[in-house]
Design a protein that fits this description.
CATH topology: Alpha-Beta Plaits
Number of domains: 1
Strand order of the largest sheet: 2-3-1-4
Largest sheet: 4 strands, antiparallel
Strand content: 25-35%
Number of strands: 4
Low-confidence stretches: none
Order of helices and strands: EHEEHE
Protein name: Antibiotic biosynthesis monooxygenase
Distance between the termini: 12 Å
CATH architecture: 2-Layer Sandwich
Radius of gyration: 13 Å
Organism: Paenibacillus ginsengarvi
Mean pLDDT: 94
Structural class: alpha+beta
Helix content: 25-40%
Number of helices: 2
Shape: globular
Length: 95
């Protein structure tokens, strides 16, 4: 199994607007699960299942480097913009 993990913090004062925005995004992308840290308010992660390495490369480019993509709107919620959005790909170790 391969996953993509996306992590970022949003402005606390924009949390509600962000949650409204991400709800729409989540509806369009059923592979995404969305979490907020229990002990760090406004810290969020997305978990994307079954994303291979090739798809990950285009996914990461769309998320971080495509101003025309719907994902670019995330920049307004994240202190420091998209540069502070972390996107990683993981493979199962099968241990």
């Amino acid at each position: 199994m391969e996953i993509v993990f996306v992590e970022y913090k949003v402005f606390p004062e924009k949390r509600d607007a962000y949650l409204s925005w991400v709800k729409q995004i989540r509806f369009q992308h059923p592979r995404m699960t969305h979490y907020e840290a229990s002990d760090q308010a406004s810290l969020f992660v997305e978990l994307w299942l079954n994303v291979g390495e090739e798809e990950y490369r285009s996914f990461k480019t769309a998320r971080l480097h495509n101003p025309a993509a719907p994902w670019s709107e995330l920049a307004e919620f994240v202190p420091g913009g998209l540069e502070k959005v972390h996107v990683w790909h993981f493979r199962s170790t099968r241990v």
